[in-house]
Amino acid sequence: MTILTKAEAEPAPQDSQPFLSVRDLYVQFATEDGTVKAVDGLSFDLERGKTLGIVGESGSGKSVTNMAILGLHNPRNTMVKGEILLDGQELTGASERTLEKLRGKKMAMIFQDSLTALSPYYTVGRQIAEPYMKHMGASRKAARARAIEMLDKVGIPQAKIRVDDYPHQFSGGMRQRAMIAMSLVCDPALVIADEPTTALDVTVQAQILDLLKELQRETGTAIILITHDLGVIANTADDVVVMYAGRAVERGTVREILKEPQHPYAWGLLGSIPRLSASVDVPLSPIPGSPPSLLNPPSGCPFHPRCAFTGQVGGDRCSRERPSIPLGERRGSACHLSPDQKQDIFIEQIKPRLR
Ligand code: SF4
User: How far apart are the first and last CA of the chain?
Assistant: First the structure.
């Protein structure tokens, strides 16, 4: 299957200054059973106008990371440690008042489930207008005009009329568009989209992803796209972080991750994507086993209980020694296999299965 990545379709703008910089982030929850290490030393950068895909199974720490960026964790039972710099402003430890001002205006979230994010009691237009009045100090009249403009922009037909509809009068795809309009109404510089298309059918999914790209081209918004599906990031993301057990196990451009992945977990994710070109007799290859407990993560490499390549590393190194991507390295994978072993295994054993 030929996957044309976003980077191949359109050269990315050149801007080397990271707009968002996350360094050595730890997020831990205190529970009755012990401490859950949900994010365990994560680092990444994101530039303006670019999209970073964060990929991994449920429980890998994707959503927890983004809640930490938005400052949405409850400080009474959550420890957030590390550095989160947004446009030079430190967010870790920032006051609720500061974060409240930033949310909606400078950074916004697009949720997976529009039914949960939109209140059934208010019209769609009112819900788009409210944050515009609150953060931009706009009058009710100006905010209503802005709500109509945003609905129009996200492709809702007859926006002037539909602005007075309630969410239940919209289809699923239209509600998702309305939620995008609500998130982008104040022109935020950072948008975090958490599985924004999972609940939608494939056609609407493609339309929503196209819409996000179009809005990004217009406004230069930086986007974090959280997904469990490598197929979704193929023509949407510029860079990708693959997460497992709260850690980055591989990092690179979308092309590098899709065409020359280095980590056994990334190989597993790629092997589980359905391919149109594959024969119906060829079964998908799900990753064996299940994600580890974050209360009591495995020793050494957290992927070792599920990995088929520990024998090639030799001895008990995989279960004893934790691999990591050196800090500041743009491209890399947290795995003890040598670069030659990674390349040989991928070319000889993994690639043929991906055709
Ligand atoms: Fe597999 Fe070992 Fe690499 Fe972990 S370090 S991914 S267990 S080969």
Answer: 6
Indicate which atom in ligand 1 lies nearest the CA of residue 301.
4
Q: Residues 17-45: pLDDT tens digits? A: 689 999 999 999 999 999 999 999 999 99
Q: 128 CB under 6 A from ligand 1?
A: no
pTM of the entire predicted model: 0.87
- Among 285, 247, 254, 230, which residue's Cα sits nearest to residue 40? 247
Helix %, strand %, coil % for the chain, to 5? 40, 20, 40
- Contact between residue 29 and residue 200 where contact means Cβ atoms under 8 Å apart: no
* Residue 84, phi then psi, degrees to nearest 5: -125, 105
Q: Is residue 17 a contact partner of residue 47, using CB atoms and an 8 Å limit?
A: yes
Q: Residue 308 C-alpha to ligand 1 middle, in angstroms?
A: 8
Q: Which of 88-97, 110-119, 270-279, 346-355 has the highest mean pLDDT?
A: 88-97
